[in-house]
Amino acid sequence: MNIAIVGATGYSGIELLRLLLNHPEANLTYLISNSQSNKQLSEVYPHFSGVKESMLKTLDIPKVAKEVDVVFFATPSGVSKNFVPEFLEYGVKCIDLSGDFRLKDPLLYEKWYKNSSASEKNLEKAVYGLSEIYENDVKEASLIANPGCYPTATLLGLLPALKEKWIKSDSIIIDGKSGVSGAGRSVSIGTHFAETNENLKAYKLGSHQHIPEIEQILHTESGIQSNVTFSTHLVPMTRGIMCTMYADLQEHKSTGEIIDLYKQFYEGKPFVRIRPEDHWPTTKEVSASNYCDIGFMSDARTGRLTIVSVIDNVVKGAAGQAVQNLNIMMGLDAKTGLNLSPVYP
Amino acid sequence: MNIAIVGATGYSGIELLRLLLNHPEANLTYLISNSQSNKQLSEVYPHFSGVKESMLKTLDIPKVAKEVDVVFFATPSGVSKNFVPEFLEYGVKCIDLSGDFRLKDPLLYEKWYKNSSASEKNLEKAVYGLSEIYENDVKEASLIANPGCYPTATLLGLLPALKEKWIKSDSIIIDGKSGVSGAGRSVSIGTHFAETNENLKAYKLGSHQHIPEIEQILHTESGIQSNVTFSTHLVPMTRGIMCTMYADLQEHKSTGEIIDLYKQFYEGKPFVRIRPEDHWPTTKEVSASNYCDIGFMSDARTGRLTIVSVIDNVVKGAAGQAVQNLNIMMGLDAKTGLNLSPVYP
Amino acid sequence: MNIAIVGATGYSGIELLRLLLNHPEANLTYLISNSQSNKQLSEVYPHFSGVKESMLKTLDIPKVAKEVDVVFFATPSGVSKNFVPEFLEYGVKCIDLSGDFRLKDPLLYEKWYKNSSASEKNLEKAVYGLSEIYENDVKEASLIANPGCYPTATLLGLLPALKEKWIKSDSIIIDGKSGVSGAGRSVSIGTHFAETNENLKAYKLGSHQHIPEIEQILHTESGIQSNVTFSTHLVPMTRGIMCTMYADLQEHKSTGEIIDLYKQFYEGKPFVRIRPEDHWPTTKEVSASNYCDIGFMSDARTGRLTIVSVIDNVVKGAAGQAVQNLNIMMGLDAKTGLNLSPVYP
Amino acid sequence: MNIAIVGATGYSGIELLRLLLNHPEANLTYLISNSQSNKQLSEVYPHFSGVKESMLKTLDIPKVAKEVDVVFFATPSGVSKNFVPEFLEYGVKCIDLSGDFRLKDPLLYEKWYKNSSASEKNLEKAVYGLSEIYENDVKEASLIANPGCYPTATLLGLLPALKEKWIKSDSIIIDGKSGVSGAGRSVSIGTHFAETNENLKAYKLGSHQHIPEIEQILHTESGIQSNVTFSTHLVPMTRGIMCTMYADLQEHKSTGEIIDLYKQFYEGKPFVRIRPEDHWPTTKEVSASNYCDIGFMSDARTGRLTIVSVIDNVVKGAAGQAVQNLNIMMGLDAKTGLNLSPVYP
């Protein structure tokens, strides 16, 4: 497969590079970066010296479309919606890591992203690439809306219990915690080392653009429309997301019963690991890998279920999940090129 | 005032030292450390060289009691209950930073601490040293049970709304996040740098010994007995606690109304700072200081209130609050010796 | 004393604030910040809420000069040289934390700072504020050139052995290591959390502007003009500088003899602490304090002396040393307002 | 190839696991851990769940020797010397990551390791596995002494200039800086998070056991016996080593000339990357990879050369280099299984 990456010099872009360089079927034909075009990749990121030598280019759609089978967009929101339609017309498959094609309702996009939406036609065409749930749709897709980092951790953690109607959909509270790489490479006081190190910050409470994405899928899968409480926190580490989720149980289930349900639900899904009772996931245990680890505590005292879900935000929350979608879309084993052990410690 | 610290070489002990060295009325008469006795303080902690030169001693109650006015216990749970009664008989005031005298119900202590309780007589005598709430009791106290770190951040964040009956007591969920100094100086794999750095871990979900302490005060202050959901997470930083709290509003109140309520409630309380709308507390903004900063988001979409509360776990969550109690108990201004700006960045 | 701080919102500026708020004789009359003028200090730095409420102002020299006794400049290089002369004419004493008045030779400034120098007249007037060496000059000064962070750690570590002619001046190699706050608050890729955390970088090798400052003082104090090798490294922590220094011994001296020499040299200097044999300084042991800790290893195998010196770059390397100079210049005890224990852990 | 790892649960052991799981020719037959035997690997290290499920075993040499081709020892010093001889007699090749077979002179081992040495016969048999220098010997070896982490970074940085006699061997000073994983997984106050984070420490100055290892190879390769000054520092990060090295040039060479020499010397060596002028290596640029990056500054002012060399201590400084040696010893391409991009950010 010949592949182009648009937005190759952001953190998701270089993680796609790291993973695809290890992928036996992928040929990196074009690395596109408007901000860094006509530079060598290794000039922008010296760690790629001797690993991948390539010139960064500006986007020339007809030229790229002629040579590649798949385009990844690792661009900020508001970019891919302008280029995806043309690629699709050329018959090139698109995997979009931004939020541009995730929300089916254009008004919702406009409200939460404060920007004009992609066309309804293309929103309809887009398949939400949470392949543990939508594998069959992904197989047939020409356009993948790769899920956001928080929604990935959240939805993998909530859906089995919600679909089984074991938890009340209107009781869901998600306390999200992310490493700083989630904010991307743009410099700001909020990601300055001296302001971030030895510091824990809450941010965007109740206004994060991942809220409608989570609610859309919860609605689709449960049949019930509910609003979630969703908070986000910036943790002084580079990689990793943890979502601690709280929901009222319809009736009491033991932690063991919950674990059994999840194990059954994710049977055959290679990237979801269900933790045994009293073992809580940690972000380092999934670092630089495509795993999502999930642990549980059902509390008889309160009638609530606590679910803890962790991913590496740059891998399962972005580039790794995109490669997983590539594999499924192209008829390969989902694990191709992703068969990597977490890096520990 | 002549003062003894029992457990002077733990992290709470040395923070007491740092603060009391800056206190105009305190004279550090005895530094007790059974594990390090007969060593110089500066041998165990070289940062005290030239700041405080003192021999660490074993505990000889009659001798100490003769010379001091107040004893601080900065000991692990299960220690102070054995020594406090004798000091009280000598007429020495005691401030206990451990959990030994916080729970009024001995059975609760035995259940959550897995240890035998202090006597009911002394439990009754103990005043819970959350002086923003119990200032008058603290003034009269001979024995202070200094609040735990998580309960301090939690209770200061919840009590105004709960006492006003604006939130439902049975809907309370507390997502706690702590720096690693909260685990003390004892070495373990769980606090090893290589296992903790670049890692975020959930721990003790639903079983943390601070749960009954929080519930006891919520019960006392609201008149309603409810159980809370309480989760704890270890964040890769040394100091700081953040509690993100969720509760259902009885009826809608705007964020502004909430802020007004809290400003009024904490009027004249020098260590609580209420953040303006859309400004979220961060742990660094209270680092090495006795402040508790609190921010709010009232969400009309869900009918829930989110409260974010931060403290430095070693100061307001331990030694600083203990000095604040000392001041009030001894008739001094609560700010004496605590008039320190946060250390930033 | 009435005091103005020009550049109050940089990291050195806010550390001056923290220290002067704790100073019994200092009255903060003016906080000047051109970039943030007409904002409340607590708007820019919320950690000052309730600690210091003050409006940030633009610099109006005649107005400020009328009301204050001393002006601190906590500005980037190239700023203070424009304003100091006028303040001096008004009879206002100036303490400059930038490099503008440190180098006696204007050509040297122009070469290393790539900027035009202050006038020779004022360069001559300026006293280099390393008060452990130049205390008498500081007492008489109207203009203090407060030493750079690396030079402070380096010179305190080297001068006793060099003045005694125990080490060869042309053999000196300084391996400097700094926390990220040394780079200031300006945002850049080089100080972005995700690029700095879990990373150790060398920078400005052989071209750091602190090189001529170090060489000037070594020359003055030893009578011999030599060039030093000086390397700098960025360490993933916020505060702290360590300089590891290497020099050939003229003839063998034991570590114990070296320690004795330094103890004698720094007798009565409250902020220099000489470490015992086999005890190596660490940056945390001086954190948030004005101490400089120094340790030694004399190696009979190589005939070389290794000296390790640590300071908090924001305190002894900037604001703390500036307050120390203020005290000495104004006839106060050098420790006034600086009597703070390091913050540990 | 069937492979056993003795000491599979230390940090070098699990990194061997991570790399060998990605190696197309390696079959992990035995994971030996005396301290954790009869536990599942994923119980000790949950990040291996679903990646590698295997029982940890005690060492039974005859049984292991019958089934494997190569044994890796990732054990503390003093262990492998007891087991290697028997494996060699069985005809099993051994790669020892500890220091037991690195020093040719048994007395030197005894002096620096404070322990009895391996037999002279086996010391003689051992090939020092710095394969960029000793590739031909590695090809023929039955026992590899895998180099230490600091010596790897140091020797790759020094040898080209030293062998060319461009630098004076008796002028060499090495300032080493390491992440905390280098101290292994054993818990201690010195690696406790709260004591290590936001802290920079010097340690083992002049007494590190890597000193004789470095001197031995410098002697062999230059023909001149000299002592080096070698200092080590603990940096608050998990992975990474940087060695900043200083040496007097015999006669002036420009940085460009130095770079040319090194590029030529390491031509065809896939894991050494020479940085262009004014580009300094950083540890993150080699993180989780087998690269060693080297940069230079030749200073006409002082006549000294500064060399900066970085590796990931757990990869090129331990497990990665061991796999590289395995490949060469077994006639495979040196890059087999090591073709990994650094993990960034």
TrEMBL record, chains A, B, C, D:
<protein>
    <recommendedName>
        <fullName>N-acetyl-gamma-glutamyl-phosphate reductase</fullName>
        <ecNumber>1.2.1.38</ecNumber>
    </recommendedName>
</protein>
<keyword id="KW-0560">Oxidoreductase</keyword>
<dbReference type="GO" id="GO:0006526">
    <property type="term" value="P:L-arginine biosynthetic process"/>
</dbReference>
<dbReference type="Pfam" id="PF22698">
    <property type="entry name" value="Semialdhyde_dhC_1"/>
</dbReference>
<keyword id="KW-0055">Arginine biosynthesis</keyword>
<dbReference type="InterPro" id="IPR058924">
    <property type="entry name" value="AGPR_dimerisation_dom"/>
</dbReference>
<dbReference type="InterPro" id="IPR000534">
    <property type="entry name" value="Semialdehyde_DH_NAD-bd"/>
</dbReference>
<comment type="pathway">
    <text>Amino-acid biosynthesis; L-arginine biosynthesis; N(2)-acetyl-L-ornithine from L-glutamate: step 3/4.</text>
</comment>
<dbReference type="GO" id="GO:0070401">
    <property type="term" value="F:NADP+ binding"/>
</dbReference>
<keyword id="KW-0521">NADP</keyword>
<comment type="function">
    <text>Catalyzes the NADPH-dependent reduction of N-acetyl-5-glutamyl phosphate to yield N-acetyl-L-glutamate 5-semialdehyde.</text>
</comment>
<dbReference type="InterPro" id="IPR050085">
    <property type="entry name" value="AGPR"/>
</dbReference>
<dbReference type="GO" id="GO:0005737">
    <property type="term" value="C:cytoplasm"/>
</dbReference>
<dbReference type="InterPro" id="IPR036291">
    <property type="entry name" value="NAD(P)-bd_dom_sf"/>
</dbReference>
<feature type="domain" description="Semialdehyde dehydrogenase NAD-binding">
    <location>
        <begin position="2"/>
        <end position="141"/>
    </location>
</feature>
<dbReference type="InterPro" id="IPR000706">
    <property type="entry name" value="AGPR_type-1"/>
</dbReference>
<keyword id="KW-0963">Cytoplasm</keyword>
<feature type="active site">
    <location>
        <position position="149"/>
    </location>
</feature>
<dbReference type="GO" id="GO:0003942">
    <property type="term" value="F:N-acetyl-gamma-glutamyl-phosphate reductase activity"/>
</dbReference>
<dbReference type="GO" id="GO:0051287">
    <property type="term" value="F:NAD binding"/>
</dbReference>
<dbReference type="InterPro" id="IPR023013">
    <property type="entry name" value="AGPR_AS"/>
</dbReference>
<comment type="similarity">
    <text>Belongs to the NAGSA dehydrogenase family. Type 1 subfamily.</text>
</comment>
<dbReference type="Pfam" id="PF01118">
    <property type="entry name" value="Semialdhyde_dh"/>
</dbReference>
<keyword id="KW-0028">Amino-acid biosynthesis</keyword>
